[in-house]
Write a structure and sequence with these properties.
This protein is an all-alpha fold and 104 residues long. It has a domain of 66 residues. Helix content is 53%, strand content 0%.
């Protein structure tokens, strides 16, 4: 009995769930490109505004903004250039300042 020809496996799309979380988070609607801004204070200001305006967040505005910033840094991992990582770490301190929290 003849076998049917093997079909090639279906094309697999890369699973980019972290990108989807950043874009479609149920907690915050962040501005496109916010994590690529040059000024840490601008990054923090944008995240603060997004967190305060969000009606869907489950935590305080500070925690929601800081969580999104930490999520982005952690998911980028080693692929995040050192300059950008330093800028995002500085944005954490700016975020603390904007919310009246002590800097680290």
């Amino acid at each position: 009995m003849a076998r049917p020809p093997k079909s090639s496996p279906p094309a697999v799309k890369p699973n980019r769930w972290s990108q989807q979380v950043t874009q479609d988070s149920n907690a915050l609607d962040i501005s496109p490109g916010v994590f690529t801004l040059d000024d840490p204070r601008e990054i923090a200001r944008s995240l603060k505004t997004s967190a305060e305006l969000s009606q869907r967040r489950k935590a305080t505005p500070f925690r929601a903004a800081m969580s999104m910033l930490n999520f982005y840094i952690n998911r980028a991992g080693r692929q995040l250039p050192e300059q950008q990582r330093a800028r995002l770490e500085a944005a954490k301190n700016e975020l603390r300042t904007l919310f009246g929290r002590p800097r680290k």
